[in-house]
Amino acid sequence: MSAVLEIAEPSDIATTEVRQHRRFSLGEYEKMIERGILTSRDKCELIRGKILEKHWEGDAAYPPYHRFSLDQYERMIESGILNKYDRVELIRGEIVEKMTIGEPHAACVMRLNRYFTRLLGDQVLVGIQSPIVAAESRPEPDVTLLSPREDFYSTATPCPADILLLIEVADSTIGSDRTDKLSLYAEAGVCEYWIANLNNDTVEVYRDPQPDGTYADAHVATLGEMLTILSLPGVSITVDQFFTARRDR
Q1: pLDDT above 90 for 18
Q2: Which one, 54, 60, 77, 242, has the greatest CB density within 10 A?
Q3: Which residues, listed in sequence order, are joined to residue 90 by a DSSP beta bridge?
């Protein structure tokens, strides 16, 4: 199948996303050192809450943020430095704040949760803004359909081999969902990735991940179209089911 993708014009995008990094207190920074999360090998320092590289290469006028490994990030969670009140995710070593979601975004996520739970029952586990592990990152996608496990992934974070479908709901985040998140999911081998675009009521469908961080098959589905899921033959959802409540407001 040939790739067909029509990207929304800038006027279709409601707001501009600004990525914010999580800031740390002196106590949190010292706890990282005390617990061995940061060691002498990590050439970094705390400057006004930012953990920055002490030595860097390139033409940047300011030091870049220190990049954390997946192991370091998970140890921050285990030690309580990061907790349930932190709306953050690890994206390619950067600990970034998640955008606050508005009512249309929340409604779309809840609608998808109810639809897939009712339709598929025990065939899948539906993850809602739950973490996955992908390419040494720990993002928290809006909706993830997972292969069922008896332990409900209590002993292991889901990885791409467990993912049947991954969905991000986008408004102001459309830029990063099409670039940073897309390349991350493709590189990790997530088999199917959808972006529910609240700016123009379309669903962008990406399939056939490539090692270079792209998808070979891309298509924009509009209102009235039926979507099928490659890993779940016979399962379908219309584009309208993503956005109906928003249009009726």
Answers
A1: no
A2: 242
A3: 95, 138
Residue 42 to residue 145: CA distance in whole angstroms: 36
Q: How far apart are CA 243 and CA 37, in angstroms?
A: 43
Q: Per 3-state DSSP, what percentage of the chain is helix, strand, and coil (rounded to 5)? A: 25, 30, 45
CA angle 136, 204, 22 (to 5 degrees): 40
Cα–Cα distance for residue pair 246/119, rounded to 1 Å: 22
Question: Is the Cα dihedral 115, 99, 132, 81 positive or negative?
Answer: negative
**158: exposed, middle or buried (C-beta count within 10 Å: 0-12, 13-18, 19+)?**
buried
Q: Angle at CA 76, nearest 5°, toward 75 and 78?
A: 60
- 12: pLDDT strictly greater than 70: no
pTM above 0.90, yes or no: no
How many CB atoms are closer than 10 A to CB 70? 16
**Inter-residue long-range contacts of 49-58, CB under 8 Å, 24+ positions, other chains counted:** 49/23, 49/24, 49/25, 50/21, 50/23, 50/24, 51/24
Please write the tens of the pLDDT for every residue from 164-197.
Answer: 999 999 998 999 999 999 999 999 999 999 999 9
| Range with lowest mean pLDDT among 57-71, 95-109, 163-177, 205-219 | 57-71
Collect all residues with Cβ–Cβ distance below 8 Å to 218 and sequence separation of at least 6.
3, 4, 5, 204, 205, 206, 207
pLDDT at 57: 72
Question: HSE-up of 229 (CA within 13 Å, CB side)?
Answer: 22
Tokens standing for 95?
Answer: 């600990």
